[in-house]
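**Paired protein data**
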Amino acid sequence: MIRAPIRCFIRCDLLRDLTRLAAGAISVPTMAEAAGNSTYSAPLAALACWVIPGSGYFLIGQRLRGTVIGVTVIAMFIAGLLIGGIRVIDVPGYDDRGYPVYVNERGQKVSNPDDGRLALRSRLFPEIANKPWFVGQVLSGPICLLAAEVSLSVSHPHSPGGTISQIPRSHARIYEIGTLYTAVAGMLNLLAIIDSAYRAGQTGQGGR
């Protein structure tokens, strides 16, 4: 007996609010206002989103969005490692045995480090161009740097003079799939970095 009048009152009150909203009497909060009075800058949000995927959204108060994006990026990166192995992280400037590449003045590889310079220093962009997928992978954050360190360590031969790595690099299709997963994870994180920085900038303008 009591519930019917209460339901009628709630419906009438909701209808009145919807009518006022349509007429412009009630303003809808903007994205900056909904994010709260955050004072974090856009570069800080971008840096945080690279260090920990999704954390840039936490700084501006969008925790659910940050959690979903962070879990997605990290899960896709780890899935790529599980599919293709740790050697899918192929660091530019290093050979298949995990040793730095040295080149002479003419850009030719040399075996003796004293006869040349590090390839990453003398020809940085060509080295990166030889392994462009690493650019996407490193956008996943420090998790890629940690995986790269492990990949280089297991690339060394068992014996100092050996030629076969502890975990040889594969050229199978499943290796390509793992590389694709890790690179796509980094590109997704790049979109999150740009978006979180933009939202942080909008929040900062709204708070002025």
User: Anything to note?
Assistant: The chain has a mean pLDDT of 80. The CA atoms of residues 14 and 115 lie 80 Å apart. Strands lie at 102-103, 109-110, 117-118.
